[in-house]
Amino acid sequence: MRIRVVRVTVSAAMATALLLLAGCSSGNPSDEVSGNPASGTTTKERQAGPEDAALTKAVQAYTTAYFDADAPAALGIMSQRCRTVAAHEAEHAGEEGRAGYEAALADAAEKYGSRDATEVTVDELSGDRARVSYKIEGLPEFDQQGQPWIREQNAWKYDAC
């Protein structure tokens, strides 16, 4: 029996990058923020604090970097876990990890142009984990609900992979 190896080009890397932006979360803000869902605090139950501003800034920076094809900035705002997933997915698409991600972002920037996150809302915040909802200016198919973020080394990082 012969096994056929198929090499997928940048389009698979593009799909990977778009999935990373869209996230693999269920999109349901009621999902767990951490291992103990009872420990999470929803927006309706708490007052916005300084962490909300830092988290909002990180969401906006990641979205801007993504749609401006600034791969170094976007990768810097990804959690370590997501950077590993992105590299792994790109390599399976026949690209070197970082080069594949850079190519995917370049394709997204060319296709959609520069975009910003708007209406950023911190849905839940529990310790170093949060869920955030936001809209992508002019691209409702990329709007997010309950997207996971994690604090690593005192900075909020995209963790929807």
From TrEMBL:
Record's keyword annotation contains Phosphoprotein: no
Originating organism: Streptomyces chromofuscus
Signal peptide per UniProt: 1-22
Region of interest (Disordered), residue spans: 27-51
Coiled-coil intervals, chain numbering: none
Segments of skewed composition (Polar residues): 27-42
PROSITE patterns, per the entry: PROKAR_LIPOPROTEIN (PS51257)
Keyword Transit peptide: no
Keywords associated with the record: Signal
Name the UniProt record assigns to this protein: Lipoprotein
InterPro entries: NTF2-like_dom_sf (IPR032710)
